[in-house]
Amino acid sequence: MIITKKFESSAVNTFKIGDPKDFIYGKDEYLYTDNKNKYLDLVSGSAVTVLGHGNKEHIKITKQVLKSGIFHTGTRLTNKYREDLYLILDKVLPKNINTFHLVNSGSEAVETALKVVQYVTKKSGAISFTGGYHGRTIGALSVTHDKKLRTSFQTLKNNVFLPYPGTYKNNKEKYSEEECLTKIDNYFKKKKNLPPVAIIECIQAVSGIIIPSKKFIKAVFKILKKNNIYIIADEIWNGMGRTGRLFSFEKYDVKPDIVCLGKSLSATIPLSAVAAPKKLLKNWPPGIHTSTFQGNPIACALSKSTFDQILSKKLLVRVNKIEQIFKQFSSRITNYKYVGDVRVVGAQAGIEFLDKKNLPNKHIVNILVKTLLIKKIIVYAGGEKSNVLMLIPPIIIKYNNLKKALKIIEKEIISLN
Ligand SMILES: Cc1ncc(COP(=O)(O)O)c(C=O)c1O
């Protein structure tokens, strides 16, 4: 830890919640500092380790690939693991979203999706939404809404942020769905040179688990389609079962043109993907957009195993059960002092805290994160104003362990003064 403090770039989040723990091993929903001290992981490495830690199948498949001696081949050579992943992606995604471009991080997937549309349409610019989070590389940052993340950097021009319900329009008020739809309609009525592409999270994650209605998402998709705009569904956080469906757009009965996946796509080591129709991903020449580590055999094999486990172990049923547990918790705490809103979807909950003047209260979330860490429960702050306590357990978490942790969290909320 001292070495990390000395050498690591200060932009990394490592010391955000005080001096971090050195974990030496992980098993299921727990991380261990030694044989006696275990911490319940309610963050899943920022929505990555959807199957928890030390997953047996993951260990087995990693050993198998390592034993073959092929750690990496580069993209000019094919391998079985990459092909197996393509087959499963083809099987689980909508019918014509059947070509894929693998990369290494969520931001890189977003860059790739924006880039291919720009290449094919020869047009620049993108539509995204207030509260939307799509990553930190310059292209991805340009469609990420949070001003404080963008302000020191020269982001791309010609981008527009349309309003998304439930996000803050000022420090206190939030956009309603009707207001958003009117503003979106007006934008399309007035604007002549429309951007070729829009990127949307059907459920916003980093902004504090913001869950619009089906009516809203359907209306947005309809207007974007009517205006011939390619729609990128950013499933980097919410894909792979987090919301109770394999992809969150399925919950909304809408069909994007392009899907970005990352985080729990492998649920382990870095891997992300863009899935799109042939008219996009088969329409740019070899070498125009590559990356050294894309399609790494170990990452692909682990991703295939993650899909197999989610589907064969019927883990989406578990996600729905976890949602019920979160909903019971939500109904208990919703009227507690400082609790402004509790949002639950699938295996995740966002508890929004307000102060006495009903303004976002990040101070309380900060206190909760630190006190819960002392009680060996790992949670993070999220939300546009850092005033949302985020609970994102691995979907294999034992129900009783979750219930016990929620009781402790409830007690801590009650004791706030
Ligand atoms: C919805 C969404 N898109 C994109 C990203 C960026 O992914 P990465 O941090 O892997 O670049 C994130 C990260 O939190 C995300 O939640």
Describe the overall structure:
With 417 residues, this protein is α/β, with parallel strands linked by helices. The chain has two domains: 2-54 and 314-414, Aspartate Aminotransferase, domain 1 (Alpha-Beta Complex), CATH 3.90.1150.10; 58-312, Type I PLP-dependent aspartate aminotransferase-like (Major domain) (Aspartate Aminotransferase, domain 2, 3-Layer(aba) Sandwich), CATH 3.40.640. 38% of the residues lie in helices and 15% in strands. It has 15 helices and 15 strands. The chain has helices spanning 2-7, 44-47, 56-68, 80-92, 106-121, 138-142, 147-150, 177-190, 214-226, 248-251, 278-281, 297-312, 315-333, 362-374, 399-414, and strands at 25-27, 30-32, 38-41, 99-103, 126-129, 159-162, 197-200, 230-234, 258-261, 272-276, 339-344, 349-353, 377-378, 380-382, 388-391. The strands form four sheets. It has a five-stranded mixed sheet with strand order 4-10-9-8-7, sandwiched between helices. The chain has a four-stranded mixed sheet with strand order 1-2-3-13. Strands 11-12-15-14 form a four-stranded antiparallel sheet, covered by helices on one side. Helix 8 (177-190) packs parallel to helix 9 (214-226). The longest helix has 19 residues, at 315-333. It starts with a helix and ends with a helix. 46% of the residues are buried. The model has no long low-confidence stretch (mean pLDDT 96). Residues 46, 105-107, 110, 133-135, 201, 205-206, 234, 236-237, 262 line the site of pyridoxal-5'-phosphate.
